[in-house]
């Protein structure tokens, strides 16, 4: 077993998780993605101890929680046994194409990654895997710290501007919002392109591809843009 995975197995086996989503965060999540349709499916990647996946189940999703650590999967099943079968959990390494391909394509209406993406390699490949799993009208919601908001010794837990460019490229529209000023940022990406891979944005800019009829306007805590690929603009990484 890789050393890094051993670390996370021990972390979750000891009952340690991460910053828990509070009512404010969950309310903003519900506002951002809208109410789920009957039998809508959600996938929470890097579920940890399962609290966020459980919240998705309580919102009305049939939720699948996945993590590469067996201890995380066991904790999720044990802590939220009362939510089964609406909430299920299984071990899955989202950096492994073979494992991800075991999930049915275009079958999830919502995919979430909370405090996870910064730790994964090749953000563009991660985004491509998510696009494969989402329905045509699906939503990818990523919650993360940003490196520009962190002290130098903690920047490894945040997304860089180039990371933001990689995760936001290839979507028809999207917006972002902050949970609090200068705090965690949530990216809400919609309309995955299931065609040929789009041209990747360079230099941290998310402004690639078409901008036909694009529009931008303030949405309180964030910025919304529509009409064309890569609609989440570079300010999303600020």
Offer a quick outline of the entry:
The chain is built from seven helices and ten strands. It has 238 residues and is α/β, with parallel strands linked by helices.
Layout of SSEs?
Elements (H helix, E strand, L loop, with lengths): L2 H11 L9 H11 L7 E5 L5 H9 L2 E6 L2 H10 L7 E5 L5 H4 L7 E7 L8 H11 E13 L11 E2 L1 H8 L2 E8 L6 E8 L22 E5 L2 E5 L12
Parallel strand pairs: 1-2, 1-4, 2-3, 4-5, 5-6
Antiparallel strand pairs: 5-8, 7-8, 7-10, 9-10
Verbal overview:
There is one protein chain. The protein is an alpha/beta fold. It has a single domain, classed as Vaccinia Virus protein VP39 (Rossmann fold, 3-Layer(aba) Sandwich), CATH 3.40.50.150. The chain contains 7 helices and 10 strands. Strands 1, 2, 3, 4, 5, 6, 7, 8, 9 and 10 form a 10-stranded mixed beta sheet that branches. A hairpin with a 2-residue loop joins β9 and β10. It starts with a helix and ends in a 12-residue tail after the last strand.
């Amino acid at each position: 077993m890789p050393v890094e995975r051993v670390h996370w197995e021990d972390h979750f086996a000891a009952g340690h998780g991460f910053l828990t989503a509070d009512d404010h965060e969950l309310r903003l999540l519900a506002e951002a993605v809208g109410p789920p349709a009957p039998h809508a499916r959600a996938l929470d990647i890097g579920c940890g101890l399962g609290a966020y996946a459980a919240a998705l189940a309580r919102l009305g999703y049939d939720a699948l929680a996945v993590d590469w650590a067996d201890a995380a999967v066991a904790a999720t099943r044990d802590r939220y046994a009362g939510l089964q079968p609406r909430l299920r959990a299984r071990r899955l390494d989202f950096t492994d194409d073979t494992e991800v391909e075991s999930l049915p394509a275009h079958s999830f209406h919502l995919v979430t990654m909370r405090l996870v993406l910064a730790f994964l390699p090749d953000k563009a490949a991660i985004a491509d895997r998510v696009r494969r799993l989402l329905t045509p009208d699906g939503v990818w919601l990523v919650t993360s710290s940003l490196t520009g908001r962190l002290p130098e010794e903690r920047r490894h837990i945040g997304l860089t501007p180039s990371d933001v460019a990689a995760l936001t490229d290839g979507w028809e529209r999207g917006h972002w919002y902050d949970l609090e000023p200068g705090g965690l940022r949530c990216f809400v990406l919609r309309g995955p392109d299931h065609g040929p891979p789009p041209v990747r944005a360079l230099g941290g800019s998310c402004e690639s591809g078409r901008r036909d009829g694009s529009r931008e306007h303030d949405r309180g805590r964030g910025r919304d843009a529509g009409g064309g690929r890569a609609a989440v603009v570079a300010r999303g990484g600020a």
